[in-house]
Amino acid sequence: MFDGLRKAGLAEELIWRSSAIDGLTTRHLGYAISQRIRKRIEEAFGWVKTVAGQEKTKYRGRDRVGWAFTFATAAYNLARLPKLLTALA
Known about the structure:
Mean pLDDT: 84
Shape: elongated
Order of helices and strands: HHHHH
Strand content: under 5%
Structural class: mainly alpha
């Protein structure tokens, strides 16, 4: 299968590619910054889902679910606060 691709010089690229995003995108500084910010946001959502118990909400209705999410994110911010304060000092 890869013989025709190997002759064209494409087989190795297809085998070793680990990302669906090409080098034209990943080479820019903005992409690296975006990935760091994305990781920070995903950590917060992961904490809210696992630790705060919001993986499957216990409430019905937009207002109650929104309140529970706001409460969970406030708890996340309180949990982060000591680390942030020591970083400033």
